[in-house]
Amino acid sequence: MNLLNFLSYDSSNPVLFNSGFFIWFFFIFIVFYSLASKFRLPKVFVIIVFSYYFYYRASGWFIALLFLTTFFDYVLAGLIYSSNTKYLKKIFLLFSLLINIGLLVYFKYANFFVNLYGDLSGSDILLLNIVVPFGISFYTFQKLGYVLDVYKDTVKPYSSFAEFTAFVSFFPVIGAGPILRARNFIPQLQEIPETGNFEISRAVFLISAGLIKKGIISDYIGVNFVDRIFENPSLYTGFENLSAVYAYAIQIYCDFSGYSDIAIGIALLMGFKIPDNFNSPYKAKGISDFWKRWHISLSLWFRDYLFLPVAYKILRILKNKKFLGVKPENWSYYFSTFVTMTLCGFWHGANLTFIFWGIYHAIGLSFERVFNSVFKFKSYFLSKSLNWFFTLHFILLGWLFFRAESFDKAIEILKIITGSLNYAGIGEIISGYKEVYIIILAGYLLHFIPKKVEDLYRNFLLKLPLIAKVAFLVLVIWLIIQVKTSQIQPFIYFSF
To answer: Which residues does residue 326 pair with via DSSP β-bridges, in sequence order?
Structure first.
């Protein structure tokens, strides 16, 4: 490998867990980390150096923005904690919010508002030439969560700027999460990492599972099926369009949960325990249950820092009195759900389809609350089965709008699905896309596999000697190389 290429930033060659570059990067990192891991400051220094190099390779000189915002939030958290008055605390919190939310709005949403203004005014306005910094949505929420925790007195500010820097820039998660909490991560920096047979086995399980999800399932069905149909839906039948919706559901799950699995596995090899980010979301038996299983770290972040504060505020305004005959706790739930899910949709991107997707889920969650309070099924099995079936297809319809390039394109796909389902040609379509349908089916089967089978796989890895674990991981990587698409595909959530 050319040393100059290894050290330089190349916007056309992003840093990916499933790339050859990352294998070299992590091998070199683990050598230095092993030497430094028993010493607190050297360990933190190695993490910072490699994390910032990783970030530079991913986003170039936006590395300066990462450092400056980390520094500002570190200082502001300290000022919030040391302030004697509530007024000063609010001022410093406001500074942090303005810096973080302001940058996020500028980089991700400036062109959205410029375009919206142009549409409303009928003017021709040139869009700004803006490049979105790698991982800004994720590391911004990590820093904001820390500052808000200090403001609420749930944590004390950490004295070590180096440890806070390592927390913000931690390379396994900076690209697409999971979103870390300082109170859970920084104490682990202060301990000697423990990486025994159990941790290594679980790491190999997670990394291999993540690579298979991403490299074999997600990339293959994305490139060979989903992308083609969503780009030109009118060229395909109703059944193909419907199949693409089911395919995208498993694609985005395997892509995003695959990234999380790899990130958690890599962190585990370093001695860090990061909570799971997914828990078989398509097994959910309710929309609220889905959000307890999908992108768990983001769901918890919105719950703790947006939903609950808004809900408590509404309760205080209503003062336990009914409004229009509706109980205050219900108004509190509906309003805070609407605000939270709308902003959750907008967080994913500056597109009306994302905003609609968020509002769609807000309506679904609110309707579910009303429905469950009114209707009670006598049969527990019937209730579970119906809830699961409805939830899955509610989620699938939402993914259609989430994936579509525009609202019009989503409506077009819906019209094709409902208007031209040609059952006579289904056999030929499946035969023509035989490999794609096999992989889609395999993806769903793996998702719905009983937990006992997963445990057997984990126990099998646990009993293997270290050299066999390494050989198994190499075998998985080799298999992915054999079936991968012509070009390595970036993770879907990198664009969010």
So the answer is: 323
Task: Write out the two tokens for 99.
Answer: 């810096």
The rounded distance, in Å, linking the Cα atoms of 367 and 290 is 15
- Secondary structure (DSSP) of 151-207: HTTSSPPPS-HHHHHHHHH-TTTTTT-PPP-HHHHHHHHTS-----HHHHHHHHHHH
Residue where the block lists tokens 């305004």: 317
Alpha-carbon span 20 to 484, nearest angstrom: 13
pTM: 0.90
H helices then E strands: how many in the chain? Answer: 23, 0
- Of 13, 16, 6, 10, nearest to 171 (Cα)? 16
pLDDT, tens digit, 9 for 90 and up, residues 138-172: 999 999 999 999 999 999 998 899 999 999 999 99
Please name the residues in contact with 164: beta carbons below 8 A apart, sequence gap of 6 or more.
70, 74, 146, 158, 182, 186
For residue 358, pLDDT over 80 is answered with yes
The C-alpha atoms of residue 173 and residue 403 are separated, in whole angstroms, by 23
C-alpha–C-alpha distance, residues 8 and 53, integer Å: 10
455 DSSP β-pair partners: none
449: left (phi over 0), alpha (psi -120 to 50) or beta: beta
Q: How many residues does the chain have?
A: 496
CA gap 397, 382 in Å, rounded: 23
Residue pair 47/32 in contact (Cβ under 8 Å)? The answer is: no
d(CA 198, CA 193): 13
Instruction: Compute the distance between CA of residue 394 and CA of residue 402 in angstroms, rounded to an integer.
Output: 13
Other CB atoms within 10 A of residue 434 CB:
10
Cβ-count burial 236-262 (b if 16+ within 10 Å, e if not): bbbbbbbbbbbbbbbbbbbbbbbbbbb
Q: Which residue has the tokens 């209503």?
A: 318
- Contact between residue 346 and residue 355 where contact means Cβ atoms under 8 Å apart: yes
**Phi/psi of residue 281, nearest 5 degrees:** -60, -30
Q: At residue 216, what is the residue type?
A: I
CA distance 387 to 121: 45
Which helix or strand (DSSP H or E) is residue 407 part of?
helix 407-419
State yes or no: cis peptide before 275, omega within 30 of 0: no
Q: What is the DSSP string of 95-162?
A: HHHHHHHHHHHHHHHHHHHHHHHHHHHT---PPP---PPTTHHHHHHHHHHHHHHHHTTSSPPPS-HH
CA neighbor of 139 nearest in space, from 108, 177, 166, 187: 177
Q: What is the largest CA-CA distance in the chain?
A: 75
Q: Do the Cβ atoms of 462 and 196 come closer than 8 Å?
A: no
Rounded CA separation 66/63 (Å) = 5
pLDDT digits (tens, 9 = 90+) for 45-82: 999 999 999 999 888 889 999 999 999 999 999 999 99
